[in-house]
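Dear colleagues,

As part of the handover before I leave the project, I'm documenting each prediction I ran so the next person doesn't have to rerun anything. This entry is a single chain, and its sequence is reproduced below.
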Amino acid sequence: MDQRRGSLRPGPGQRRPHLGDLPPLPARGRPRLTPPRTPDVDGTSHTPRSSGRQPPTLPRPAHRHTNQTSAALSHQAVAEAGPPARHPTRSIRSTPSGAPSARTACREREPPSQARRGSNTFTTRETYVTNNHTQQNIGWIGLGDQGAPMARAIADSGYPFQVWARRSSSLDALDGLPYTVHNTVAELGAASDIVGLCLREDSDIRQVLTEGGLLASMKPGSVIVNHGTGLPQFANEMTDLAAAKGIHVLDAPVSGGNAGAVARQLTTMVGGDTQIFERCRPVFETFSKKVTHMGPGGAGQLGKLMNNTLLMMNQRNVQEILGLAHDLGLDIAALVDLLRSGTGSSFALQALGGAVTTDNAEHLTTLQLIDMDIFDDAVRALGHSVPDITARAVEGARGLLGAARMVADSSTPAPAA
């Protein structure tokens, strides 16, 4: 028996462990459904393992005051609204050698109306002020498939936006928007009131927090938000690490994939202190259609894992129905069209032939199997074993390509005789 898991199961007279009192999990000893991913702190948030009442909802800025200082489920193109009109900015031009002025170590690109892409013109970072309230500076790490459109939504909503990226090419995702790029994680942390992380693995998060210097550089009272999908237990570990520095933590994974992020229609599930959640809610609403506070630290991650698992179980339901219909000789295209409009419809069905295609199904399967590894770890750590649920969800993930092919083949016109 896995001794780690055994120790988490309650004995006679003992209560089940609660989400808030679990220790961090050591590395698993059993084989995983998928091989480990290569850590990459510029990765997407969908892929694991990443992790006061303050003033009411923050007002949007009316004017600016210059303060000089340094997954996955989409193949569809979603049109973005053009950037709103920008307020005038003061710029600092590069020196003749091409290096930026010594007055700014961190540079913010100007909107298209003031500087073309490739221009050597940069602006100072600006603090937005309205009604005697200063807008919070938002920091961001992770400009992957999920993180980039979320970052664009925040920057486009008027928040002073700080960013660090391992690769300068990642900053292309923010073209046309005002932001300040920082040379180090610690530099970004010192300049930010709230830092959002959209990274691939929990191990990447831990590296940024510790070795990267994020925790050491952030001011007491500031907030770190983990938008990646990961273990609830790691969310609690993050909270403990940050609390020692007087920093707050929220776990806020998202659902909706790249298409939802681009359309600013994500569902955001948040775990952590209620007052800190209300403080950050306006930021989440820039890229979300629904923001829900699920409970204490780790509850956001559990909500996301439940959502993912149900999706994969529904995928299996769809696969079995389509397989039966094929054996019975039914027209699959007609049946899918019918079911999409009927009471038996689901997102798993709606996505086939749309967000899920034969081109991306294998990639999505890999991501889903990783999510099921996390789900299995999280549930077992809380003293539960749900092998039937896990097995059915895994089947749904592995059958995704076959279902995508069946729908694609049914919608392809037969060749002329």
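Residues 154 and 283 are 7 Å apart (CA to CA). Residues 1-11, 22-31, 35-134 have pLDDT under 50 and may be disordered.

All the best with the project,
I.
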